[in-house]
Every structure is written in C-alpha cells, then in structure tokens.
Amino acid sequence: MNSLSLLKRASRYFDDYPSLAKLVVVCTISGGGYVAYADANGTGGSPPVLEEIKKKKVVVLGTGWAGTSFLKKLDNPSYDVQVISPRNYFAFTPLLPSVTCGTVEARSIVEPIRSIVRKKSIDVKYWEAECFKIDAENKKVHCRPNPDSSQNGKEEFVVDYDYLVIAMGGRPNTFNTPGVVENCNFLKEVEDAQQIRQSVINSFEKASLPTLSDEERKRILHFVIVGGGPTGVEFAAELHDFVNEDLVKLYPAAKDFVKITLLEASDHILNMFDKRITDFAESKFQRDGIDMKLGSMVVKVSDKEISTKVRGNSGEITTIPYGMVVWSTGIGTHPVIRDFMQKIGQSNRRALATDEWLRVEGCGSIYALGDCATINQRKVMEDIAAIFKKADKDNSGTLKVKEFREVIKDICERYPQLELYLKSKKMRDIADLLKMAKGDVAKEAIELNIEEFKKALSEVDSQMKNHPATAQVAAQQGTYLAKCFNRMEEAEKNPEGPIRFREEGRHRFRPFRYKHLGQFAPLGGEQAAAQLPGDWVSIGRSSQWLWYSVYASKLVSWRTRVLVVSDWTRRFVFGRDSSRI
C-alpha cells in the first residue's frame, strides 16, 4: 500500500469520526516528508492539511580526510546529503610512500566511498564528478562528470544547496618553476604512487640494457626527491630500502650506479619536527648514502636535467642529470577554489579564509575545511574594547580581577592564543598577566582602566599560529563540523558557545580546536621517529612498531586493516614485489 492511499484512508476516517482527538500522521518520503493533520474541532467535511517537510540539502565537495570524516560522523536525518568528487574512494594518504615501492598495495589503502555512505542511516548520494564553479550568490555548484563516467565528458550539470561543505584538498605546489609539471612525478594521489612505482622499475629495466653507456646508466638510476618534509623524507627512505633490500638482488649490475638525492631549500630536513629528530634523520641518511643537498632551490627542470641554485653561493646555478624526479614541496590551490576566492574578495590568499567555526568569511552557508582552507583566528586586540566593556559589569570604567575571572573561560575559548600565551610565560593565573601592567600591587587589589588592560594583553596575539596542512587536522575538522550539523537546530535554541563580545548572547557552538596527537617520520631500515604530545620523542625500531600499530588502527575499515597487515607480512616474508604490472 502506497503513502497516498494511506493518506486518503486517514482523511475518510477523520471525516467519519470528527470527535476524535488531534492526530498527526507523518509519512516519510525520500528527500522530505508529509504531515497529515486533523483537528477534533474541525467540521466533518474538511480534509486534513498536508504540509511538506523539506530537508536541508547539504552538498559535500571532496572525499578526502575532511570530507570523509564529515560524512562518517553526520547522523542528523533532517539533511539530504549529496557528495560530489572525481575520486570515488577514500585513500589513506600517510601510506602513499609505501605504495610507491610495493611495501603496501594500492588497493589496500583505499575504501570505496559508496561502501562508507551506504552504512549511514541518513540520505546520502554520491556522484563521480568534478566541481568547476561555485556560485555562492545563487547557492549552486556547477559540475561535470569524469571523462570515464560519460560518453564525451562534457555533460555539465548544476546542483543546488542549502549548505555547501568544501573539502577538495589541495594540489602540488610547483611555485611556477619551469618544467615541473611536464617532467616531475608528484605524490598526492594513489595514481601518483602507482606511476612512481612503474617509473622506478622502468629505470632499472632500462639501465640493464646492453646498449647503454655507464654514464647513461648513472643518469637513469639517479633518483631525485625535491622537498625535505615528511612525505619526501619517507619516500627517500622507502626507495632506499626497496633498492638495497630487493632490487639489487634482481639487478646486481645496477648496484654501483644507483644514487638517491634529496633537495631541500631550507637548512634542515623535517624542520617541523623536534631538533633531535632532525639531527637523527640527517645522520641516518648520511650513513645510508642518501645525498642531501640542503639550501638548494630548484629553478628549472628539463627532461634529463634539474637546475638548482644554492643560497649564499652568489646565485650560481648547478645542473644535475637525473632519471626520475619526485616533487614534494607543499600544497597549492585548486583552480576552482582560486576562482571562488577571487569572487568573494580573497584573491590574495593561499587558501580559503574561514572563521573559527569553519564558515567561509562572507558566506554564511558555505564551510571549508582541510587543505583548501585556513582558519583566520580573530585577534584579541581587535576586540579589546568590547572584551573590556563586557567584563566591566558595573560600568565603573575599570576592571577588577574578580570581574575578569568571570569571563576568562569565554575569552580563552573564543581566543585560544590567550591560554597559549599564559603557558608560554609560565603564568598560573590571569591575575599574573594583569599584574604585569599594574606593577607591585596585590593580585586581588588590581584594578585596570582600558589603556592598562590593552597594555596587559598587547602581546597575546603573538601566539597565533596556523594549523598545519595534515590529514590529522582535516579529519578533526570534518568530525567537528559534523557534530555542529547534528546539533544545528538544538544549538539555535540553546547556544553552547562562548559569549559574543561584540554582540548580545552566545555563539551557537564552541569554536574548532585542533588537538595535536603527535606525528611520525619513518626513516627506513625499520626505524622511525615519533614526536608525541608533552615533548615526548622516540627514535628507533620501537617507534617503527608504534607506527605500524597506530596506522593499522587508523585505517578506515577492517577490510583495509587486514589488507595492509597482510601486505606488511608478505613484505617481511617474501620481500617487495618488483613486477611491472
């Protein structure tokens, strides 16, 4: 029996028995619903009123860490969710360097996005397409299907939205260096890792041909990695292990010709890690024979040579022959994001600017998270007068320690740099900060006017830092935003965020706060470096096993966990696969 016949029968029943109490019948239909309503005081001939319950449409662009985390945690049935991405799977990107050398197979680190969303109890649909234009004024996104998904790849379509979640990630940053796009390999997607693996095997097969000179073999087997960050360092370590543990057994004549070079523009590799980790990594690479050229900036890449300029060397350019280059120097902006930024007045930025609730500045219904966005944390000094006025409840024109303590929780929640500043100065209480502006006065007797208050907080904003563009940040942002969407209606009635210092009331939600859980750097030879919260540093084989256990637990499903662990086991027993498939 369909929904319409049920409604007709209910209508006749209300007509026959008008003395019944109020009754509401709700029929859920995909994309919305209908409410049938009858009143006991109504006349016998009046039919029930039908009102459509329209769901809010949420469009999610991207299936990376941010987008997938958002989808996994979103469970509010009042949304109709449409996912649009040219990639129909989620990839566990921290293991991409392992894919390049066959330590882990590509299939083991991906999970189909349809497998993830089909487990949801809410309406979620996925389309394999690419967004090429965002129309914020009319709340539309313009898309086109992947060439493989359509006959000619040009059937463009438009999708309306009530809320837009931009989680498109980034693209490799070439810094407009000539020849990079044409001649370098990147390590951003699963396809990139597979291509690198093919290129490494191809290089060894080419170098084994009898027609080549020794000079040409040296060039072909010279692997250059540009970028000394975590991805570049891990790939260099993986490649070194692959060559020395597996390939030299299959290509013994090539052993003396292989060379791995790591180019880094700064003075150290892994400069975002603790100095102890940086020093250990550099000394290990030196022992392993990996040639590190620090302070070297790439100025041009041709099909057979890479040109570098060393800082402080009078601008002299050095040319290095190579067989393969992997470019891993940071994150750039997608063209569609760049065009959107120009439309909303953010053309001078690297990524979309959002507020602390991940809303794109100037666009109340658009959210951006992950590598394509950066949080524009508001400064304390921009709101210093409003903070003073809100804390000065007796309107005396001066602020006492007791008054400030009553709002300190809201201030620290709204402006996290204040709490960081207190920790950096080893201050136990806000009174210690206020005392600095007043001098030798007992804490409880401190009373500041607006100018003294400004002086006390003048250096607080120096602790402001942007979040790193990592999978860890993107995943936490996706989880946070999903929780906000789950509680959107409830938070409208009962706000749970900090005080609005420039307005009345409270913010609906608490601002996003990133919690750093630590970071790893595999260095090859079954050794890794771990930097965990609390300034805890671990280096060596034990850290490698910690890396194995953490990454295995973070994989998105039991299927991928089993596959990755089996790949690791296969590698320990049989070695890496060097087939060119």
List the main descriptive attributes of the protein structure presented here:
alpha/beta; FAD/NAD(P)-binding domain; Recoverin, domain 1; 3 domains; seven-stranded mixed sheet; five-stranded parallel sheet; globular; disordered N terminus; oxidoreductase; NADH:ubiquinone reductase (non-electrogenic); mitochondrion
Walk me through the structure:
- With 581 residues, the chain is of the alpha/beta class.
- The longest helix has 21 residues, at 230-250.
Could you write a compact summary of the structure shown?
With 581 residues, the chain is an alpha/beta fold.
Write the layout of secondary structure elements.
Blueprint: H1 3-16, E1 23-29, E2 32-38, E3 49-54, E4 56-61, H2 65-73, E5 79-85, E6 89-91, H3 96-100, E7 110-112, H4 113-117, E8 123-135, E9 140-145, E10 157-160, E11 163-166, E12 171-172, H5 180-183, E13 185-186, H6 190-207, H7 214-220, E14 222-226, H8 230-250, E15 259-264, H9 275-288, E16 291-294, E17 296-301, E18 305-310, E19 317-321, E20 324-327, E21 331-332, H10 335-343, E22 352-354, E23 366-368, E24 373-375, H11 384-391, E25 399-400, H12 401-414, H13 416-424, H14 430-438, E26 447-448, H15 450-456, H16 471-486, H17 488-493, E27 519-524, E28 527-532, E29 536-540, H18 541-554, H19 558-574
Parallel strand pairs: 4-5, 4-11, 5-8, 11-23, 13-20, 14-15, 14-20, 15-16, 22-24
Antiparallel strand pairs: 1-2, 2-3, 6-7, 8-9, 9-10, 12-21, 17-18, 18-19, 25-26, 27-28, 28-29
